[in-house]
């Protein structure tokens, strides 16, 4: 039996937009279920995402939902998504698209440990790290 650990993000009504944006950047298969599909009686929730899951060709899984009724939106800095690897073109492409409309904290450039690294917050308020491993001489 196998298991896996996946990030699960919550949004204040923008889960569909965020997931579709991430799918546009990362590719893959996106499945979403709304509160309405599961019989939520509140019409205001009918089109909100109860559960969404993006499975990408790179093997990433990203899950997300809109906050359910009664759950407070308490954004914070306690989660960051990190993508790393040695496919420079792929990772620079992710950087270029994910930073659109966001705020770059650390530009994607060579760091003291030899890799290219950058950090940013995307337009949905999610923090990201990208590290491009460089071949060691």
Structure in words:
The protein is α/β, with parallel strands linked by helices and 137 residues long. It has 2 domains: 8-66, Roll (2,3-Dihydroxybiphenyl 1,2-Dioxygenase, domain 1), CATH 3.10.180.10; 80-132, 2,3-Dihydroxybiphenyl 1,2-Dioxygenase, domain 1 (Roll). It has helices spanning 15-26, 88-98; strands at residues 8-11, 29-34, 49-55, 61-66, 80-85, 103-110, 116-121, 127-132. The strands form 2 sheets. The protein has a 4-stranded mixed beta sheet with strand order 1-4-3-2, with helices on one face. Strand 3 (49-55) and strand 4 (61-66) form a beta hairpin. It is elongated and about 60 Å long. The model has no long low-confidence stretch (mean pLDDT 91).
Brief digest:
The chain has 2 domains: 8-66, 2,3-Dihydroxybiphenyl 1,2-Dioxygenase, domain 1 (Roll), CATH 3.10.180.10; 80-132, 2,3-Dihydroxybiphenyl 1,2-Dioxygenase, domain 1 (Roll).
Topology (SSEs and partners):
Elements: E1 8-11, H1 15-26, E2 29-34, E3 49-55, E4 61-66, E5 80-85, H2 88-98, E6 103-110, E7 116-121, E8 127-132
Parallel strand pairs: 1-4, 5-8
Antiparallel strand pairs: 2-3, 3-4, 6-7, 7-8
**Whole-number tally of structural domains:** 2
Percent of residues in beta strands: 35-45%
User: Which structural class best describes the helix and strand composition?
Assistant: alpha/beta
- The helix tally amounts to 2
Distance between the termini: 40 Å
Name the CATH class of the largest domain.
Alpha Beta
**What is the CATH-assigned architecture of the largest domain?**
Roll
Task: Give me the strand/helix succession.
Answer: EHEEEEHEEE
Spatial extent as radius of gyration = 17 Å
CATH H level of the largest domain: which superfamily? Answer: 2,3-Dihydroxybiphenyl 1,2-Dioxygenase, domain 1
How helical, in percent, are the residues? 10-25%
Stretches where pLDDT falls below 50 for ≥5 residues?
Answer: none
- CATH third-tier fold name of the largest domain: 2,3-Dihydroxybiphenyl 1,2-Dioxygenase, domain 1
Q: What kind of sheet is the major sheet? A: 4 strands, mixed
Mean pLDDT across all residues, rounded?
Answer: 91
Lateral arrangement of strands in the main beta sheet: 1-4-3-2
Number of strands: 8
How does the overall form come out from the CA principal axes? elongated
Pfam family, one: Glyoxalase
Protein name: VOC family protein
InterPro entries: Glyas_Bleomycin-R_OHBP_Dase, Glyas_Fos-R_dOase_dom, PhnB-like
Domain Glyoxalase/fosfomycin resistance/dioxygenase: 11-128
């Amino acid at each position: 039996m196998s298991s896996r650990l996946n990030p699960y993000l919550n949004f204040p009504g923008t889960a569909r937009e965020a997931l579709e944006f991430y799918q546009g950047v990362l590719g893959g298969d996106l499945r979403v279920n709304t509160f309405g599909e599961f019989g939520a009686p509140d019409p205001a929730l009918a089109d909100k995402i109860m559960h969404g899951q993006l499975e990408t060709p790179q093997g990433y899984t990203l899950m997300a939902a809109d906050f359910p009724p009664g759950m407070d939106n308490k954004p914070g800095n306690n989660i960051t998504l990190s993508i790393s690897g040695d496919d420079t073109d792929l990772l620079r492409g992710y950087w270029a698209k994910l930073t659109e409309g966001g705020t770059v904290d650390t530009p994607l450039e060579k760091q003291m440990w030899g890799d290219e690294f950058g950090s940013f917050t995307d337009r949905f308020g999610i923090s990201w790290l990208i590290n491009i491993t460089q071949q060691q001489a």
